[in-house]
Amino acid sequence: MTSTPYTEPKAPLGVGSILSNSFSILFRNIVAVMIVAFIPSLIGLLISTGLNGGGVALGLEAGDPFASGAVIVIILEIIVPIAIQSLTIALLVQLAYDAKLGRPIKPISYIAPAFKAVVPIVILSFAIGILAGIGFLLLIIPGLYIYAVFAVTTPAIMIERAGFGGMGRSAALTKNYRWAIIGAVILLGICTFALMIAATFIVGAVVAALGTNSIGIGVGVVLMALITGLTYGLSGIGVALIYARLREIKEGVSVDTLAAVFD
Fold it and tell me: Contact, 254 vs 109, CB < 8 A?
């Protein structure tokens, strides 16, 4: 007679709790989130406006990414959004932990740690984007799974100083929890998509009222940057909380220990 070895049940990721906490942190600290996320979002939109024109940047017109025929423009159109979002998430990781612990939110103090880690964060985010993009071409689910594998790369770089080892660290932390992470990512994605649809509608109405002149486009860019900042805020906080939960489950590390790295 053989005995089956006892296996301790796997602790749940707690997708519902992560989502509710993400929204709670976002709305309780919405001004601070906007301060952190607005400027990177605005910079990204201004660059996009310069490359494509205001209508295309605001989603009011269809654009042809190859119209200019300039390779450098095409490269910038790919790299700039990834770089902006990566940097914003790096800033928001710190905000999320301070908010979770009820500590004072200090946006200025988040800048230096984020910029110290910006090179590996941007390069690895670009690599993950390529891998996930290939996966999405293979019927979507592989892309989501690849994204789940590397979902906590940025927090690993920020908190653990993992550098270019961030993807490997993320792969280790997300093991056995990737389908739960996919569920969280899909739900967060639905919320951010809804925000962006609303943003396009609102911005379109404002630009139509003001006219497609410099004033109308300028106001539209500012409004779009504000709402884009909210989407970055929600996704960035969500990623930070997923990372914190994985560290808690697998290594018994609490949020206050994670946040202490920035002190």
Answer: no
71, 1 Cβ separation under 8 angstroms: no
23-32 pLDDT tens trace: 999 988 988 8
Q: Where are the alpha helices (DSSP H) in the chain?
A: 15-28, 30-52, 54-57, 71-100, 111-116, 118-137, 141-149, 153-160, 166-174, 178-210, 214-251, 255-259
Say what the pLDDT of residue 16 is.
Answer: 92
- The DSSP code for 117 is T
Burial class (CB within 10 angstroms; exposed 0-12, middle 13-18, buried 19+) of 69: exposed
Report the 3 state secondary structure along 2-69.
CCCCCCCCCCCCCHHHHHHHHHHHHHHCHHHHHHHHHHHHHHHHHHHHHHHCHHHHCCCCCCCCCCCC
Mean pLDDT of 69-83: 66
